[in-house]
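Protocol step 4 of 6: record predicted structures for both targets in the notebook before any analysis. Target 1:
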Amino acid sequence: MKTSNRLQHLALRRITENSDLAEPLDLQTVWYARRFFQRLRGLLGRPALQMDEGLLLSPCAQVHTFGMRYALDVVFLDRRGQVLQCMVGLQPNRVAGKSGARHTLEMASGSIARQALAVGDRLLWEVR
């Protein structure tokens, strides 16, 4: 059986600390990089993410922006999808990571504030 290297699309929802309801995030396109070479490439050689786009890398506890020309917002998640850390505006040629992270969501700079993401929120995803 041949496996595809195409990135899958996800639907992301959030459960906040104050609610049990899963509300959709305002991200129209989220790609899912779960194979080694998909994660290795990440956003390298791709155009900058738009405000309604994201890339979820899994498993992933550390990212870099070497070779990139734009800043990113980065959200580190634990095994259950709970937000452990939000990094706003990670500049090019930097490395960031979070101990205990299992997944990492990369978005356009400014997206964390726009989505009102906070430590403690929980993200749920499903393949579209």
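Target 2:
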Amino acid sequence: MKPPEELIECYQAIVNASKAGANVTKQINEFNLLLKNLNKLSKTELTRRALEIKTETLKLAQQAQTQTLINITIAVTIAIIVVVLAVLFYVKYRYRLWLLWIRMRGGYRVYPGHGGGKRESMITSGEVWAVILAIMIVASVFAVAQAITAGRVVEPFSELGLLGPKMKIGDYPTRVLVGDKIKRYIYIGNHMGYPVWYIVYAKLGNRTTFVNSTIPANLPPIWKYQILLPHNSNTTTPVTLIMNKTGSNLKLIFELWYIDPETGKEKYYTWTHLYLNVTAPPTKLT
């Protein structure tokens, strides 16, 4: 199911601005407020508020791109200046460095080597200075590359975790009664390098229900949660469900989906699950 087009465009603007280096914390918070009240807002109100967020975000993106260009220009200029100064210093002061060396070490005794050729001082050696100059150029190029690639993630990934009622891994009660509320917590972590619009679905199946890392469970969702999560952040949200049927080894599945910023469509990412034994409440004696 594709989300409203207004939200997709707003989400894409936030992602692009974040990748450009803009601080979009305020826009992410406003976007999440729209998600929270999605069913309460009219089409007109949703469009208006989404457009406001998008307009603000586009301005931030333009400012961030301009600042990035300025930073790269400064880095390149500094690199050029450093190289030019190094060359000028070598051309103008190499003989003075040689005289300084003579003053400092002029009293040393020199013994002839085995090779009959003339030996040249490291201070006035063109090869030595060429190596130094090459090192300076490489360092300057590295600095420019760092300015361009700053903030990029080498191995992006997302996290999905299921926590028990005490917000810990492992304390999962597996026996519940029909009509009782069961409380769990869902943990989501974003390490993708940009803000991600996540959607979590809860589905109830049985032991034979098939689900893996590439194929979601072919079941209707019984619970849904969505959030726009900034890069390098996480969230833990409570899940309260009521089991309305009995069954042994019922599979409570939680699937993590996300909205692809390129296509605006939902994409399945991963899942986790828990087995439950749901029984009828004891009969009251009259």
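Step 5 preliminary note on target 2. The two ends are 51 Å apart (CA to CA). The mean pLDDT is 84.
Proceed to step 6 after PI sign-off.
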